[in-house]
Amino acid sequence: MQKWDLKIKITAFKRTDYNQSGDIEVDLKNKKATILITKEDTGKDSAVILHELIHLLLWEFDQFCEKAIPKNKKDQYFDLLEKTAADLTNIFLQKDK
Questions:
Q1: Where are the domains of the chain?
Q2: Which of 54, 13, 33 has its CA nearest to residue 62?
Q3: What's the rounded Cα separation, in Å, for the pair 91 and 20?
Q4: Which pTM was predicted?
């Protein structure tokens, strides 16, 4: 991660179907990433940042899988990806879920 240019941006997410607390924008070629965090006070900023950093660590693997997975399995894949990132976040934060 030391080779990455990392930034954090506070934002208002526009999704109405989901209470989103974070996201990440990645420029793999230039090793730049921006972690987006909701402007709402959730009290979980450090966990959100860690969760998004895990997505960054998995980014190349994730991009490979997205291309290889059939369209009818994409939702299942994204659910598993989010669960994996959440589980790893909890492990690093030493939380049991």
A1: 5-92
A2: 54
A3: 21
A4: 0.88
Amino acid in position 26 = V
Q: What is the pLDDT of residue 96?
A: 54
Res 1: pLDDT: 81
Q: Which residue has the tokens 């980014």?
A: 59
Q: Which residues contact 89 (CB under 8 A, 6 or more apart)?
A: 47, 50, 51, 54
Question: What are the tens digits of pLDDT across the range 32-77?
Answer: 999 999 998 888 899 999 999 999 999 999 999 999 999 999 999 9
Report DSSP letters for 28-56, one per residue: TTTTEEEEEEESS--S-HHHHHHHHHHHH
Q: With contact defined as beta carbons under 8 Å apart, do 48 and 13 qualify?
A: no
- Long-range Cβ contacts of 55-60 (<8 Å, 24+ apart): 55/24, 55/85, 56/1, 56/4, 56/24, 56/26, 57/1, 58/84, 58/85, 59/26, 59/28, 60/28
- Sole residue written with tokens 């969760």: 51
- What does the alpha-carbon distance between residue 55 and residue 36 come to, in Å, rounded to a whole number? 12
